[in-house]
Amino acid sequence: MNHGNRAFVTLALACAATSALAQSTQNYIEPTRGFLLERGLIAEPKTFSVDLATGIGDQNIGGVRIGVPNSEIIINSALNGDTEANEIALKWGLAPIPAENININTAIYGGLAHIDYEDDQGNDFDYTNIVLGAAFTVVEQGLILNVNPELEIADDQRDDTIFNLGFGAHYNLFDTEYGRFQPGAEVVFVSGGDDDDTVVDLGMRWLVKEEITLDFVVFHGGAQDITSLPGIIRLNAVF
User: Fold this and answer.
1) What does the domain layout of the chain look like in residue ranges?
2) Confidence (pTM)
3) What is the tens place of the pLDDT at every residue in 182-232?
4) 231 within 8 A of 203, measured Cβ to Cβ
5) Which residues form the signal peptide (predicted)?
6) In 7, 82, 119, 178, which residue has its Cα 20 to 30 A from 205's Cα atom?
7) How far apart are CA 92 and CA 95, in angstroms?
């Protein structure tokens, strides 16, 4: 091999190694939730992320997550679709629970939604909803397993105490130059309220870059079944 070819091969190998190193050192900042479920994780202190979602009927909804010491403030705009009220919650990170050779990341949270308004017909609506929940998450060799029990005291049109038990599984595929892809499935068993249904979400999480995450939920099953492409889209951007 002549010196020119050697130099070309050396340069090509150096570029490939640099590209591989850049991919392997990506520090993706995922939201501390799945498609539907909270995870047993909290945002880093002083981080700020915005959620925007579309494709849920005629709704365009959003939320904010703010990392504070040992906890996270979550502000959602009717993300559950059952109420028109904004919701605010505080999520506390607890010490991981050791189990065998893994750690179970744990968090608890409490939230409040209150609204008082009058519709076009002069009817007054005044209610306060309260939510209490916990989340347990294991991250092991690319697999993310999640359990999320939640109790909601609904004072709105549902007027009931509702228990949700959610399970989720996501898997991190290998990184590419276009980001990381994470297929996932989540199911929530709902007991109480008018929509006493099992809710299922199937989709793909695309970690586009370190601060940008896109969720594509192609199937949403529950009180209303939605199958679509590209699906219900939810963007999370970290600032």
Assistant:
1) 3-238
2) 0.82
3) 999 999 999 987 666 799 999 999 999 999 999 999 999 887 788 888 889
4) yes
5) 1-22
6) 82
7) 10
Write out pLDDT tens, residues 131-140.
999 999 999 9
Q: In Å, what is the CA distance from 39 to each residue of 60, 165, 199? A: 23, 13, 17
DSSP code of 181? E
H or E segment at 173? none
Question: If 0-12 CB within 10 Å is exposed, 13-18 middle and 19+ buried, where does residue 203 land?
Answer: buried
Token look-up 């294991």 returns 138
How many residues comprise the chain? 239
Q: Provide the 3-class DSSP secondary structure of residue 104.
A: strand
Residue 35 near residue 186, CB atoms below 8 Å: yes
CATH architecture of 3-238: Beta Barrel (2.40)
